[in-house]
Amino acid sequence: MASATTAASKKIGDIDLLCINTIRTLSMDAVQKANSGHPGTPMALAPVAYTLWQDFLNYDPADANWPNRDRFVLSVGHASMLLYSLIHLTGVRAVNEHEDRNAPALTIEDLQHFRQLDSKTPGHPEYRMTSGVETTTGPLGQGCGNSVGLAMAQRYLAQRYNKPGFELFNYHVFVLAGDGDMMEGVSGEAASMAGHLRLGNLTWIYDSNHITIEGGTDLAFDEDVGKRFAAYGWDVQHVEDANDLVAMQEALAHAKSVIDRPCFIQVHSVIGYGAPTKAGTNKAHGEALGVEEIRGAKRFYGWPEESSFLVPDGVYQHFAGGIGKRGAERRGAWLSLLARYKEQYPALAAELEMMNQHTLPAGWDADIPSFPADAKGLASRDSSQKVLNAIAPHVPWMLGGAADLAPSTKSNMTFAGADSFEADHYGGRNLHFGIREHAMGSICNGLALSALRPYGSGFLIFSDYMKAPIRLSAIMELPVLYIFTHDSIGVGEDGPTHQPIEQLVSLRSIPGMIVIRPGDANEVAEAWRHVMTLKEQPACLILSRQTMPTLDRGKYAPAAGLKHGAYILADAEGGDPEVILMATGTELNLAVGAYETLKSEGIRARVVSFPSWELFEAQPAEYRHSVLPPHITARVSIEQASTIGWDRYIGSSGAAIGMHSFGASAPLAALLKKFGFTPEAVVEVARKQAGHG
Ligand SMILES: Cc1ncc(C[n+]2csc(CCOP(=O)(O)OP(=O)(O)O)c2C)c(N)n1
To answer: 601 catalytic, yes or no?
Structure first.
């Protein structure tokens, strides 16, 4: 254990205690009024959070978006009232688009509407809903994972944009985490990576209160967490009593002084501190304390027992004179630094502007290749790599990597200067997540929260390992790009453990997620062209390991149709189609082959390339009906995945060629035959649909 260095610890006075008890009682009162929530942890951690915010956090409540602000992540999202109380008491101003800008982010009335419909104080902190909330937390461990992305972003920004005399980015990332966070695997993955990357700008404060929902942590958890973090390469300190403000100040001062490794502060606290019968028990964790218990706690704090939502005189002013004053000074100095930076480094300043506005530089897509028709073609993972490397040099704030699969997912940036992001080179753009899919997703969210454009890649099958952060990208409306390859039974000999079946429909079922499975190299190019313009939506690119022909776009419709989600690739001649064939990815070529055969037999068919359900659903009904006319009910979908969902497009009488079981380990040709993905099988189904069977 590293010893705490001496800090410039200030004297603790009555006003400090008054502020702390205000946080505690606001939290208790809000949970009581809602009759729902988690009072115990805010009561226990109020002194810790107070010390951090009031004495350390470089944060200007007047601008919660200031790019160089220290980040505070409440990974124990269930203790949301702790954060809401701080946002209110420090006078954070609203900055989100839908909010009344510059009004207080949270008023006392907002605290009184805790957990109510449309309130700004939902059960768990939600990014974009409440200014001052840096990330959505609640699923335990995610805040920890996000924080590593936030810290990596600072390191990248500092490396690229800081110049002698211009330290534009030097912020620190602080996390409050609990036993639940420490038990979740994602925090271990993320901590291991943070230790490897020697992220000295990251501090996790671990609230060790030995209580979770079922009771004592000894029911399930007895390792020495501090030793684990020491083994990860973190600096580890202990604070024996969460109420010891001096010890907390010293620990935080030490954490800020350590610059070559992340810091871990294990704080010992009593959940529900001050509650007469529930303190130190799981009864203080997740329910309102009850009127009598609250009275008793208030008595213990020396608080008026009958008061409710009381903010005593002097509390707002005290915060204003601490975090408020310090933040305003720091931000003021930073803004003048930025003004001088703009004069001296106009090109870099312009980059920062674009990055923060989520716009793209002129000509960002100028080098995207157009792929000539080719019967053999190439795997979509390969065309994707070409397109990625045509775009990324133009967008220096785009960073990404894989969970140890970059040679397979073809997600490496290969141009000069792309390099690897490592502890001795934070300017690298290729991220090596190691075999840590869950942390990869969570870190990508942290990078996107920092206005960078991240991508993470892996095999589609392992998207299951990172479903929670993928879902959170969508909830937070973050433009994270997920590149998933090896997208079907086409994986062949690796067998059912590696062959995705239900993953595609599962990703498509996430509200707000854009899933694109392009059907040839030019559709891959169009897919990238589209996803790069997304500002508030995550996307999944679903790519193949095996080759697919590059279609002759002189003969078939241009790939630009991809932006509509589905488009007519080839149509019937001489009348309405007798059957519509819809396909995605590698199966598009099967549809085209079947179309040509049917044509030679005099059967009128239409091929609809259908790379993205979500983009298609966003089209006006008129367009959708032009592609899939309601009166043409003979329809076939072809996709090497679960057929669930295709009924939406094939209707009740159509046929879905897809997977109805797990796959198998065998050479691809054998699998295609076994599971019905041959030209003959498709033609037969189509013929039947068209009434010629
Ligand atoms: C991934 C995940 N699993 C389960 C939960 C449900 N849950 C919320 S709080 C909690 C217990 C957390 O214990 P701890 O971190 O010690 O918090 P404290 O009791 O100190 O408030 C659990 C299991 C969750 N929010 N996220």
So the answer is: no
